[in-house]
C-alpha cells in the first residue's frame, strides 16, 4: 500500500463527530502529517442568529475577520506545507485563497461533498463559487458539478465517490442472544421541500414498526404523526454507526433538490452491517445488486412491499447485510481509498 508522507494544512472541522475530521484522520492513516485548522478555532463559535445570517449571505461578513485571524494565528505562523486541503470550502472566499497562494507555495485542493453549484444551497456557497479558479484541484462527488465547475474556469476537476470511514463505520456485532431490532429505521435530517416526512407517514399508516432519529423533525407539518416514532436527535460516533447497523431495515433518502443519485449513507449503512433500503437510481444500481447487496424501490408503495418481505424473512435480511458489507469494502469507497485517489491526482 502506497504511503503519502505529505505535510497537509487541512481547513475543516476538527470535531471528532464530523465527516471532515474523519477524512483528516484517514489522511493521517495514509502517512500524512496533518494540521487541522478549524474555523471555530480562528473566530470562535457563532450564535444561532449569526449562523443564520452567515448562511444566508454566503459567509460574506466573515471574510475580513477570517483573513485577519489567519494572518496572525500562532498555529499557522511559520508552518510550511506540501499541500493545503480545504474541506467543503464555503467559509473561504477569493481573498483568503489569494492569501493561501501567496503565503504557501504549494497546491490547494478543494474537497466538497455537497452540490455547491446546484439550486438547493446557492446562497451558502456564494464565496466558494467566486474562488473556484484559485484551487489547483477541485474534488466533487457529482459528475455534473465537475463539468459545471470546468465551465466556470477551474483548473482541474475530479469526481469521486462519497465514502464511509474505515475506522468509524464498522459492523455491529451481535451476540447469540441478540438480533437486529425489528424496525424500519431512518437516521437523518428533516429537509424542507423534500417529501421525507410524507414517506415516513405512509409507512406508519401501513403499520410498519418504525424508528426515526435525526434533527429538525419538529419543523415538519406532520410532526404530530412522526413524534410517535421519534427517538431523538442525530447521533455521532459509535452511536451513529449502531443506529445504521442495528435495525432490520435502514432507509436511505436522497435530496432531489441537491441532485442526489446516491447518499453518504449508501456507503455507511452497508459498512456498519445494516440492510440498505433506498430509492432505485442509476448510481445505486451500479453500486449494488438489487435484492442481493441492497434493496431498492421506485415508490412508497414498493418500499412498503419490500419492507413487508424483509421484516418477515430474517435469513434473507442477514444474507443481504453480509453480502452488502463485504461488497462495500471491495469496491474502494472508504475514506482512505478516496483520499489516496485524490493525493495521487495532485
Average residue-wise pLDDT: 93
> Structurally, how many domains make up the residues?
2
Order of helices and strands: EHEHHHEHEHEHEEHEHHEHEHEHHH
State the CATH topology of the largest domain: Rossmann fold
Got a strand count? 11
Spans of 5+ residues with little confidence (pLDDT < 50)?
none
β-strand percent reads 5-15%
CATH H-level superfamily of the largest domain: Glycogen Phosphorylase B
Q: How would the global form be characterised?
A: globular
Q: Which architecture name of the largest domain does CATH use?
A: 3-Layer(aba) Sandwich
Q: State the end-to-end distance.
A: 18 Å
For the largest beta-sheet, the strand count, sense and barrel status come to: 6 strands, parallel
Helix content bin: 25-40%
Highest CATH level, the class of the largest domain: Alpha Beta
Plain-language structure description:
Helices cover 39% and strands 14% of the residues. By secondary structure, it is of the alpha/beta class. It folds into two domains: 7-159, Rossmann fold, CATH 3.40.50.2000; 181-330, Rossmann fold, CATH 3.40.50.2000. The strands form two sheets. A six-stranded parallel β-sheet has the order 2-1-3-4-5-6, sandwiched between helices. It has a five-stranded parallel β-sheet with strand order 8-7-9-10-11, with helices on both faces. Strand 5, helix 7 and strand 6 (157-159) form a beta-alpha-beta unit. The longest helix is centred in the last third of the chain and has 17 residues, at 314-330. The chain is globular, with a radius of gyration of 21 Å.
